[in-house]
Fold this sequence. Notes:
- The chain is an alpha+beta fold.
- Helices cover 19% and strands 40% of the residues.
- It contains three helices and eight strands; from the N terminus they run H-E-E-H-E-H-E-E-E-E-E.
- The protein has helices at residues 4-12, 44-57, 81-86; strands spanning 19-26, 31-38, 66-70, 91-96, 101-109, 113-122, 131-140, 144-149.
- A five-stranded antiparallel β-sheet has the order 7-6-5-4-8.
- Strand 2, helix 2 and strand 3 form a beta-alpha-beta unit.
- It is elongated, with a radius of gyration of 20 Å.
Amino acid sequence: MIAKQKVIDLVNERLDDQMFIVDVTISSSNDINVYVDGFNGITIEQCIAVSRNVEHNLDREEEDFSLQVSSPGLTESFKVRQQYEKYTGKEIEVLTADSEKLKGLLLENSEDGIVLETSKREKVEGHKKKQLVVKKHNLKYDEIKSAKAVISFK
Length: 154
């Protein structure tokens, strides 16, 4: 089986400081899937460069393999901290460890966790109509079961 660390090292050779690895998986039959992203997105040309570097530095005569390099889909959950950094200032959806769904603006991310600002209309005592209530949630990474970008077509 092909060593995962070798693939990671080969991928990193073609990434600049605005790009990062999201995930690398290698199946028992040597199906290699590499997911890369960038703070400004990632182009097909950049995926091709990563793919070629990995492919040219692994020996098919020694071990046959299949290789796929792509960006993670928009509907996929975040896997690395850099994804939170990329989506700072944008809307995300979080499922907490206690199964609470939160949707809001990602205000900050740090080594420990994130700050998410949610807003929704709620009944407030002393008011006849529902009022817009804005809350800030400080969440540690281990309190987050999953998080993903909210896709908006506005």
